[in-house]
Amino acid sequence: IQRTFSIIKPDATRRNLTGAINAKIEAAGLRIVAQKRIHMTPAQAGQFYAVHKERPFYGELCEFMASAPVVVQVLEGENAIAKYREVMGATDPAAADAGTIRKEFALSKGENSVHGSDAPETAAEEIAYFFAGIELV
Ligand code: ATP
Ligand code: MG
Q1: pTM of the predicted protein model
Q2: Does ipTM come in above 0.95?
Q3: For FRET with 101, which of 25, 60, 70, 74 sits at 20 to 30 Å CA-CA?
């Protein structure tokens, strides 16, 4: 059993899509074991996305992630990291497979509705950035 970290991004929370996205997560066999709504500052979003600091879209990405509340989650299941990336679909919704969250809900490459960790090390770091040990059972 594995855990991954997820964010339901501002474009999705604004459109009241948290429940619809959670339904897709659960239908894929992933269990939501922790979840809360937060509103990041641009600096907090910048620290979270620090690996993308040199990319041209970094400033825009940080502003977007701080533009409205998000829902941060810990998901659990067999191969949760890879499975959730499959459920999310490609970064660019135009390239995402049918039935994926991004195909169904994302607006663009930037406003793409969800984030999911890409490896066990980043999943552990990202979970620890947003959740205290006492919140994880
Ligand atoms: P995430 O890390 O959010 O799960 P990802 O792993 O599919 O998404 P990354 O390459 O890690 O994609 O990019 C991180 C985020 O940066 C993307 O989800 C998207 O919101 C934004 N992004 C990536 N490429 C672009 C781009 N060309 N223009 C605008 N925003 C982008
Ligand atoms: Mg990524």
Answers
A1: 0.96
A2: no
A3: 60
